[in-house]
Amino acid sequence: QVQLVESGGGLVQAGDSLRLSCAASGRTFSVYVMGWFRQAPGKEREFVATIRWNVYYADAVKGRFTISRDNAKSTMYLDMNSLKPEDTAVYYCAAGRRDYYSTRSSDYDYWGQGTQVTVSS
């Protein structure tokens, strides 16, 4: 099993920045792809960013968000800049055994509990 714990969420104003972290523990050697998803109130969970050998972003965050990982620390990050009110959501960290990046939630085997990001206008 792999446990994922997100941190770094909070309440910010439009235009501000935040860094989310996702710390992995357990059988971390068994996971390859990692990603971030988010879910806004009343909406379905949506893909944000993914990383394995490459990175890939949702169009809504491309150019503003940066995904990275530090394998030595078993930690993944999401640097969010120029935040907008529409970025308000619960952000989830995910990890999977797939050996390539993926935008599909079904390709991920492990999920964190989520961290709230609220952007005020």
Sequence-ordered SSE layout with sheet pairings:
Blueprint: E1 2-7, E2 10-13, E3 18-26, E4 33-39, E5 46-51, E6 55-57, E7 65-70, E8 75-80, E9 89-96, E10 110-111, E11 115-120
Parallel strand pairs: 2-11
Antiparallel strand pairs: 1-3, 3-8, 4-5, 4-9, 5-6, 7-8, 9-10, 9-11
Folded structure, characterized:
It is a single chain. By secondary structure, this protein is mainly β. Helices cover 0% and strands 52% of the residues. It is built from no helices and eleven strands. It has strands at 2-7, 10-13, 18-26, 33-39, 46-51, 55-57, 65-70, 75-80, 89-96, 110-111, 115-120. Strands 2, 4, 5, 6, 9, 10 and 11 form a seven-stranded mixed sheet that branches. It has a four-stranded antiparallel sheet with strand order 1-3-8-7, with no helix packed on it. Strand 4 and strand 5 form a beta hairpin. The chain is globular and about 40 Å long. The termini are far apart. The mean pLDDT is 95.
Largest sheet: 7 strands, mixed
Rounded mean pLDDT score: 95
Q: Which structural category fits the helices and strands?
A: mainly beta
The number of strands is 11
> What percent strand?
over 45%
Low-confidence stretches: none
Order of H and E elements: EEEEEEEEEEE
The helix content is: under 10%
Radius of gyration: 13 Å
- Quaternary assembly: single chain
* N-to-C span: 40 Å
Query: What is the approximate shape?
Result: globular
Count every helix, treating DSSP H or I runs of 4 or more residues as helices: 0
